[in-house]
């Protein structure tokens, strides 16, 4: 991990903000066509964002969490469809390969991932095993040449365009949850793997989510990521970082909604007076700003802890809960103050309102994360904070 000074982090954030300002000019055409202009992804590639968390030897930037969340906060102002593969590249999949992949796996996949040439899909969730991983039904049976995977994953982002899937499956039926799940690197279009039709979503995704089915999908022994039976642990440790990224996205989306609202209330008049002069409106804005500032402080604290090698499981869970819910309230306030315009397609606050909702669901639903925080508190007391 490269050490980055506060001044360098500030420059990266300013650079990203300027990039986002330029890319937002493409949003009106995207809203009409539902097609992301090629210039958007090209710009993200040229600045090396796909490799932010990947070691330099594989073409990445080897950034720590602190500079990463600063960049991610600014990217959060973009329509999520503009950087869907980048969001996944910064998430659990790449981190699992960096930490636990063999030299062969790392040299095969990480350079392409750092260049933005290989999108990755994180295949963990199942129809009956979302938050409840103990209910996972996908199996990977040992063979003389490797493993055969059978089962199905659902609500998988980017499955139609991914070049690689990180697939989680049970390898020991009689073992406990923490030692029965393994992770596998499965290339796209592997024989025995099929992708279902897209499931349209409220927001966030361009093509929807997908079911990925495995029917006697044979993979070699070297497809195993790390050690057998350690998949649950790999998923949980990488999700801690992923949750901080989601929290940073939430702050970025909420702050963008706040900026749009501030511009609106300064110019929108009611009874000959701008909305901004109304004390009720002022208090609504102050509440949003207070929550977003508190959330961002939590993000920075969590990032510093991860960079220092500390256990950040509780703080990452608390931060994702707080920031995702605060961003939802920021978007709701924006829609309320925009009135009918906030409920109309073509206005950015309407887009934010749809896109922000999923942040309370993926990479740990708020209720599940509250359970995790409570468990940590009951075991460690306030020392868990």
Give an overview in words.
Helices cover 50% and strands 14% of the residues. The radius of gyration is 21 Å and the shape is globular. It is α+β, with helices and mostly antiparallel strands and 385 residues long. The two termini are 25 Å apart. It has 13 helices and ten strands. 46% of the residues are buried. It has three domains: 6-115, Acyl-CoA dehydrogenase/oxidase, N-terminal domain (Butyryl-Coa Dehydrogenase, subunit A, domain 1); 120-227, Butyryl-CoA Dehydrogenase, subunit A, domain 2, CATH 2.40.110; 232-384, Butyryl-CoA Dehydrogenase, subunit A, domain 3 (Up-down Bundle), CATH 1.20.140. The chain has helices at 6-23, 27-33, 38-46, 65-75, 84-89, 92-100, 103-115, 177-180, 231-267, 279-307, 313-338, 348-356, 366-380; strands spanning 120-123, 139-142, 146-156, 164-170, 181-187, 193-195, 210-220, 224-225, 269-270, 273-274. The longest helix has 37 residues, at 231-267.
